[in-house]
Amino acid sequence: MTQSLTIPRPDDWHLHLRDGAMLKAVLPETARHFGRAIIMPNLVPPVVTAADAAAYKARIMAAMPEGADFTPLMTLYLTEETDPADVAVAASEGLVHAVKLYPAGATTNSASGVRDFDKVRPVFERMAEIGLPLCVHGEVTDSEVDIFDREAVFIDRVLDPIRRAVPELRVVMEHVTTSNAVDYVTSAEAGLGATITAHHLIINRNHILVGGIRPHYYCLPVAKRESHRLALVQAATSGDPRFFLGTDSAPHVDPAKECGCGCAGCFTATNAIPLMAEVFERAGALDKLDGFVSRHGAAFYRLPVSASTITLTRGDATTFPAKIESGDGPVTVFDPGFPVHWTVTG
Ligand code: OTD
Ligand code: ZN
Ligand code: ZN
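That is the input. Now the predicted structure with OTD docked in place:
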């Protein structure tokens, strides 16, 4: 018996599309299964003003494959110089759907991020007034904090104080990787959501380090121990609307990952949706898949659920390309390490 599942066209609430040749190569991978995505602003230089976002959006539209049913939702990179009025205008025009907070130095291209959170308080206050979400890369960057503890420490030292200082600010904790973050999100009264990536639902830190170092599993925040992964699966498959898919698909060419100091990032745009079907099926929660990939994020961002649909079909184990080619070089597609039986058939 074939099993199939028709769900509203999914959205990706956290995506890196890059620019230039890489954008051209990865955009069709996302546009194939997703209807919308929140586009991360960590280009070099970053997307900081409304004008930057409009120009970047135009480059994305110019790279769009013929006939694609995909809308990029732009974000601004918060700096200590961000002008609250510029943010408000970009939001009112429907150009910008979130502002992104990177603690300085937290991840790839985050050197212009925020060091002094008091300096950006007027931006937070304006965003709270207009209901514009703040997307947060939730890791402290202090060298004395262990890399596996950086998310949990961020909650206490940075996130909770921001939310107490500006209680009406709507916040998305991006790519949560710990049970601490899951607990923090579920204990919040309102105005807090979280994205979870495909890869953090699949790998733990052993996958990166046991039997040799596996650079294609290295990303930030780094995958944690198995008990944390299980907490993420539980949150994602629970039906709780505060959790939604944000793949954080972050392409780097292979030479930039397979070297003495490899870049962080897993590239999952190609197979994220089939992987999610497999993860939800294994958890006995296929009935919760559409909430996580197609409904909860739209509700948080106050957008309609997609009117179009995709159909997933279960069959023999499928294979994905090991790599995609970009004009800059090959990009390895995330390998879940288990057979995947679901394909998008319509
Ligand atoms: N994590 N790589 C990148 C970004 C993310 O923290 C993130 O959002 C990237 O390459 O842009 C990564 O591992
Ligand atoms: Zn991040
Ligand atoms: Zn990211």
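The radius of gyration is 19 Å.
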